[in-house]
Amino acid sequence: MTMLALSFARVCSGLAPFRTVLRLQPLCSASGITVAQIDEEVAKLLELKARLGGGDDGKHQFVLKTPKGTRDYNPKQMAIRERVFNTITRCFKRHGAETIDTPVFELKETLTGKYGEDSKLIYDLKDQGGELLSLRYDLTVPFARYLAMNKITNIKRYHIAKVYRRDNPAMTRGRYREFYQCDFDIAGQYDAMIPDAECLKIVHEILSELELGDFRIKVNDRRILDGMFAVCGVPDDKFRTICSTVDKLDKLPWQEVRKEMVDEKGLSEEAADQIGEYVSLHGGMDLAERLLQDPRMSQSKQACAGLSDIKLLFSYLQLFQVTDKVVFDLSLARGLDYYTGVIYEAVLTQAGVAPVALASNDAQNGSEESVSVGSVAGGGRYDGLVGMFDPKNRKVPCVGVSIGIERIFSIMEQRAEAAAEKVRTTEVQVLVASAQKNLLEERLRLVTELWNAGIKAEVMYKKNPKLLSQLQLCEEMGIPLVAILGEQELKDGVVKLRVVVSREEVDVPRSDLITEIKRRTSDA
Amino acid sequence: MTMLALSFARVCSGLAPFRTVLRLQPLCSASGITVAQIDEEVAKLLELKARLGGGDDGKHQFVLKTPKGTRDYNPKQMAIRERVFNTITRCFKRHGAETIDTPVFELKETLTGKYGEDSKLIYDLKDQGGELLSLRYDLTVPFARYLAMNKITNIKRYHIAKVYRRDNPAMTRGRYREFYQCDFDIAGQYDAMIPDAECLKIVHEILSELELGDFRIKVNDRRILDGMFAVCGVPDDKFRTICSTVDKLDKLPWQEVRKEMVDEKGLSEEAADQIGEYVSLHGGMDLAERLLQDPRMSQSKQACAGLSDIKLLFSYLQLFQVTDKVVFDLSLARGLDYYTGVIYEAVLTQAGVAPVALASNDAQNGSEESVSVGSVAGGGRYDGLVGMFDPKNRKVPCVGVSIGIERIFSIMEQRAEAAAEKVRTTEVQVLVASAQKNLLEERLRLVTELWNAGIKAEVMYKKNPKLLSQLQLCEEMGIPLVAILGEQELKDGVVKLRVVVSREEVDVPRSDLITEIKRRTSDA
User: Is Ligase found in the keyword set (chains A, B) (predicted)?
Assistant: First the structure.
């Protein structure tokens, strides 16, 4: 702590004129300060320093970091990322999706009025003259804008790209300010619940293939929620705000949610208790059938429509062989304003992996970090969003799902780390090497032959590298083969092909080398 | 024109309080106004409208567009983009590169002082509290920041990502404000010119594989340029600015460049003429040898070092079999400040494709659009950039190349258009269809079997689609096979497999279907 205190003092004195900006007094003197708090204050100070454009000694000094809430991906992380993307893309393509791309920023007004309270998390660009722009917050709103702009009324598309939210980052748990979303959406007027069921089939396939452990896909419907609110006596104008409170049920126990409803949102205790009964229910098609008979619930036309659709959905899910993981859960209430029908969310249920903790275990803790559970995919039906962009409000029904990939990366990275798994970051099949001096030209000639034949090959960028260092490079990078050239080999018209793992060496006629390398690496 | 005038009048009246912002008077009354000018003014007005957040009638009305200088990619364009990326990525991987990713924005100060005059084109983010951020301008500076931050002294990496420049867009020619760069860089202390030569080999491979027509790769060296300036009598403090003027030689004829040197930059006529002699030279290794003997040039140690390296470079390029396209060209002077050695730029030399016009043809025109020639790749050596991020200024020598992909996309898209080429946007192998009613469940059951076996398959999202509309969907999307189910087929335990192109139909036992589909689509 002394070291920390010292460095604080130095930073504080260097920033004397700006003391008013920061509450440094309690920081420098108080006891009982946590490391997390110190880290946070250091980050703030470094930010301030960055804005001042220099260090305390007057000499310009870079703050060598990425922006808050963002990260670089190193080659190992990229190799894992590529694997995950390939699995996801393969699944999207298997289901016949096309792909589109949209700009990373949109006109500010395109995003306005789509995200409710979360709008405060949107990154705006500086007004440098011209249009007012914001970074995209998700891929759904740009998709809707794209459909309306191009008057597209049906498409099945996927879109894998980064989105931006000025949220509180929790990076060890895979919560970033810049993060990838992998979206799959089906737009078009189709027979009920078939596309909706396919979205769930896709989530099931992807989470199974990624082998992230057991998972559940919770399903509900906005119309059931609204109908439930109506029959429980929630006033119409409180539907949205009560819905937001229900949405906290995956983070907070019922008693706290109930408290918020009654104390903060002014709901009657009676209404809250009735809601409480419903949101504790979960099941399958049978639950939907039971609720259709429920004397209170059946009074709501909306709820009945939703419940009938849930029944239909489950019948398709049976055909798709995914009912083992899907739960009809009345407590699911996704936050976004634009959903109009079915909603769903997938959670990992194995607490074995560090960043994924079950809500119930952490619920009493209540801090924002500990309650971020294993939600790794979510989505639903949004039949009104495209119409918001159409001058004549022409609607295009849509349903889609978004895979939250960063949390999956975190899990995969930690696993690779834990298993001390050797992740290859290149695909090089062969290193062209030499044991003797003055053979650079011969090495370059041979590697050119290999490149021209489509073989992934490297040479060391040295005139006279040692054989040992060339072999070490192979070990390090996981290169399976070495093609060794020497005076004798050149004379005999052969290349010595060495298998790195077994140290086996064999002379291959130069004319057969390409075929031989391809043969030996074809299963790699 | 009447229509236009009318709509102008309406917009003008709607914006009366803001008239001072725009110079509307000349616009509304003047004659001889061009369509381009009108378009520009309309864009300005729409921008203003967007900022006011509403239309003239008070009702909120969206401006349904992407931000200036940006575009969406539709599925066809994405299919082309994917093909180009695959070719490029395959080449980078063949040469043993790893890949990394960095955030789309950096701390503003990370970009400060790296781009000279072009810094004004950087997009800043709005100060919403916290750090000051800017969108990345290229991938090179973030790469250097990454190396310094992680203390990496050698790596061969590629990075394919979007970069941002508030430049004047010329979108039909592939010049955007948001555009992709495909960068390949080699960092590390190696024997001279080997990595540099590999970068040129890579450009050669990529441009050849993409079949964009003939191309040239111009090569020069910053040290040769500086040496040349010194021996021609350019004062030291004018090197950079004279270099910028020389850089315009691909857009302007020598006489205009000379004029700028003398009239604007205050260079003596004698010095300008001496430069003029040198910059008209181009050749191969022979030219480098000749210049090493040149009585004036040989006085500069710097120039001699550069010329010797060019010789060495060409000797490696011969081994790499790429000298057919590489020209040592003394007029090449790339704008960026950070280059320290070899520089290069690839240009397409076939004027056959619309957006690529040769500079010489357009030079007298002088408008910014017409002079943007076919430069599709560029790069060079930058040994000092990483050191700028290191507190102790430890240098990491780097050389790299950036493929300017948007122009390549433009060419490919126009070609696909011109050839009326059928670009498939999905990879679906088979549509599960039915000729009869009430078979939705059977179709869903079969498509599930196919998906679970990894077959790319679709069904129409209708309970009872017509067979004709199912076959039309196949035609439209290029789906090669249809698996048709009917009562009879279900009874017989077969599926009728139809080849869309030939209309051939064959009954396949259900148990053999997956194998049969895989067999028939394995070469697809």
Answer: yes
